[in-house]
Write a structure and sequence with these properties.
Number of domains: 1
Helix content: over 70%
Protein name: Thioredoxin
Radius of gyration: 17 Å
Organism: Hominiventricola filiformis
Strand content: under 5%
Largest sheet: none
Distance between the termini: 53 Å
Length: 46
């Protein structure tokens, strides 16, 4: 039973840690910029 709760908890903590590291490095701004460019290209504005 414990193994069923440990694995998802470890994966959740690993994901949160990786997202935090990406935010610290400024990757969120890069991803947002690419998303905006992609959306504008799909609409035909950019």
């Amino acid at each position: 039973m414990k193994c069923g709760k440990i694995v998802p908890t470890v994966l959740l903590l690993a994901g949160i840690t990786m997202m935090g590291y990406g935010v610290i490095r400024g990757e969120a701004a890069v991803v947002l910029g690419k998303a905006i460019k992609l959306c504008l290209e799909c609409v035909g504005i950019g």
